[in-house]
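User: Run a structure prediction on this.
Assistant: Running it now.
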Amino acid sequence: MIKKILILDKNHPFIIYKLKKEGFICDENYNDAEDRIDLSRYHGIILRSRLKIDKKFIERAKKLKFIARIGSGTENIDIDYAIKKGIILISSPKGNKDAVAEHAIGMLLCLMNCIVRSHQQIITKGKWNREINRGIEIMGKTIGIIGYGNTGKAFAKKLSGFNVQTLCYDILPDIGDIYAKQVNINTIFKKSDIISLHVPYTQKTKGMINYNFIKKFCKPFYLINTSRGGCLIINHLAEALKNGKICGACLDVLEYENSSFNKIFHNHKLYKSFFYLIHSNKVIFTPHIAGWTKESKYKMDKEIVEKIIFLNQKFN
């Protein structure tokens, strides 16, 4: 039976309200480090990404029956060891899929239509430049989606009104649908004008967008990354922008975002490629907010609560 739950990151108030209403005891700890938290009393923990759930952490949680990660990624959890200890992993990958899809389209429209650049020219320099900010239409382009899970499918569905050809590639077979035709990776390389990355962060996807990968494309393309920063090597992206293999990039995530981001801005030599990107008019950034909407915050928590209640019914 699941009774006591420890919540390690702040979430929508709904999550505590609903769990308490269902009879669970909920404690909150939003500040302590891993080694200062008493885990021995809890049957479940709920978190985002504040803490790393490693073997040592799991060993201290003797009564733990589940770990609930709000969001889709579980890279901060030692999944293999948790499973070995009989702990069930829960996530909420559907809760922010529409937010991510909308954000990816928004970034792409901003980049291809020079929206951010022209806005900055007007408000900072008082320049009204039309010709140099002439945009490029999405209509008629071929869009390749790499990773066709929840967010990839939502992105394809929202693209359906743009009159584009949408292709998808995934390691799982037979998951294409009416919004995207599933093809092999060589077809993605051959036909894509725009690439959107929607993969989890694993050993197989770590650094997958590197120069060897990029040079396989038959024509220059635009790149969107709203998945995980570690899937894209920034140095290789910068090189591809310089030589024209990539026309432009929309980056919501960065490979070194988990390190102290403030330190990056004080080390131009170490992060030379990053500074090239932030001064390029071919790149736009957002601070890992693609799935970060008011609506998704509620939907992700709701999905987690429903799964915990269902799990508890199985234990009873």
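The first strand starts at residue 4 and ends at 7.
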